[in-house]
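Q: What does the assembled structure look like for these inputs?
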Amino acid sequence: MPENGTVGRVTATRAARRAIAALCASRGGPVMFVQSGGCCDGSDPMCFPGGELALGDGDMLVGVVEGCTFHTDAAQYEALGRPFYVLDVEEGAPGGFSLAAGDGLHFVTRVKAPRKQTS
Amino acid sequence: MKYQPPGRPGSPVDVAPRYENFIGGKWQAPSTGQYSVDLCPATAKPLCEVPKSGAEDIELALDAAHSAKDAWGEASTAQRAAVLNKVADAIDAHREELAVAESWDNGKPVRETLAADIPLAADHFRYFAAAIRAEESEITEIDKDLIAYHFHEPLGVVGQIIPFNFPLLMAAWKLAPALAAGNTSVLKPASPTPWSILKLMEVVGDILPPGTVNVVGGPGAEIGKALATNKRIAKVAFTGETTTGRLIMQYASQNIIPVTLELGGKSPNIFFNDVAAADDDFLNKAVEGLVLYAFNKGEVCTCPSRALIQEDIYEEFMGRCLERIRAIKQGDPLDTETMIGPQVSKQQIEKIASYVEIGVKEGAELLTGGHRPTVGGEFTDGYFYEPTVLKGHNKMRVFQEEIFGPVLAVTTFKDEAEALEIANDTLYGLGAGVWSRDTRRTYRMGRAIKAGRVWTNCYHQYPAGAAFGGYKVSGIGRETHKMMLEHYSQTKNLLVSYSDKPLGLF
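A:
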């Protein structure tokens, strides 16, 4: 259900939407989010220039936030009980090759209670 | 005993206000002119300034690595091994200094860095010094007059990107085989722990021929990418987060270069009922084996973060474990009595706290911990989190997702078949532990668990000589073993005819 200008099973806080808009404006194009899993910076959303990660059949589109797509590995999504993600920003440097959410900030995902669906 | 923090009187470690990149054997300011503040996780206070480099610095480092690669690649294995052994000797000679620096930069307790990180790093250089001396080329006699010679040749310049959880040991795991095989390296340390590797370069920088090892610090999105996508690297090695691992493979595919990756894990640690058959040393060892989830504050890719306990001993065994967990001493990482220090960053404790909350919301039972402890004194703002245990079932998110903190998810199983099913019900396959007095059972389990390393009646030992790496999405390649030399070598085949006779086709 669309919420705060987003579609799908991901929404964003006001701070995250501001950060995404500023990032897109400074880069002159959209970014993409990939929910990570595992190791040091795992469980954070990685934010890359739009199209940077080549997506495969195993990736699913979780939703769209401020015109930017949010993806995750479908097997991971199932293993985690099909979570509902909320993008937010926090202090601290981003992990991996992720873009920052502004000076000294990085994106995080918070999780609403898993909504198991029968499919 | 307590060590004084780096920079204070009586400390074995000095701290400069600002550090530079180590390129071509020299300290070089970043071309960006920018620096970032490295925070000490125990106090949340600034430790020093470190370079916030840009893509241009990667190019400078690659220039240095390329200018060094021919001489280093052509050096005899005896010469290369001698350098590696000197590096090991220097690390040993500066053990306390490096251990204290590592603890202060990362937060891990100094009892671990003194006993494990630093001695293992030195040993790694010695292992690969020995391995490269013992390595032989292969000759195949195709027929009487046709001989295939196979020579191992260095790849050239390699890019290496290391994680924050064992900054010096992971550097050693990557650098030792690369250098032994005759390559030169451009290495990027993790952003939360940029400093200890620079202290290591102070110690070993003069031993390494200029340009063989180059260290450039800065944001992954800029310099990590600039390194991994660069056409001037012949291989990329990465330890870290899974999506970045995928991106690195993708970049490597564009340049058609090999990659080795060590990614995430959610390792099962399985305790069969016979561990409690006697109240003896073995039971004591098994209890410690479970508590090892708190080793390095759980910031380990192989953290045994899922404990599977056979149901008929659960109450008794877990009771003993909880007693041991509640006795864990948390606090100043530079106190040798401290068993668990702070997490590496504020981001990590926030993530851990949110996972514990998720676990409890999902219905997991909080058996111990679950809070930020009050450590007090200069550590009031440090990134501490209590050793925590959640009891639940394997479908819960806290059983499936790597938390990278001192949080254990514990569940029970009925029999061997169920233990195996739960153990393998994960996306990851890096490590596992199996505990039993029945070695036929541990063998069956060990072979059936889909993970690269199955610790059997032990855990968290990382000796050079035992191959380490992942199944499934946990990565590609095997480190800490001489087989890593193959990942850093080309094979040159000379197919030589000693016959005077033509083929007779034309």
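The interface with chain B takes residues 34-44, 46, 48, 52-54, 73, 75-76, 79-81, 83, 90-100, 106, 108, 110-111, 113-114 of chain A (CB under 8 Å).
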